[in-house]
Amino acid sequence: MGKCPGCGEWNTLTEEIAVVDRKPVSAAVSFPITSVDETLDMRFSSGIAEFDQAVGGGIVVGSVTLIGGEPGIGKSTLLLQIASKAAQDGETLYVSGEESPRQVRMRAERIGAAQCDSLLLSTETNAEAICSLMAGRAPRMVVVDSIQTVHTEALDSAPGSIAQVRACAAMLHQTAKEHGVALFLVGHVTKEGLVAGPKALEHLVDTVLYFEGEGSGAIRALRAVKNRFGPTNELGVFEMSDKGLTPVDNPSSALLAERATSAPGSIIFPTLVGSRCLLTEVQALTTPSFLNSPRRVVSGLSYDRVSLVLAVLEKRLGLRMGAQDVFVNVAGGVKIQEPAADLAIALAAASSMRDRPLPQGLVAMGELGLAGEVRSINSAEPRLKEAARLGFEQAAMPRGNYQRAGKLGIELMGFRTLAEAVKTFLTD
Question: CA-CA distance, 424 to 396, in Å (whole number)?
Answer without folding.
Answer: 10
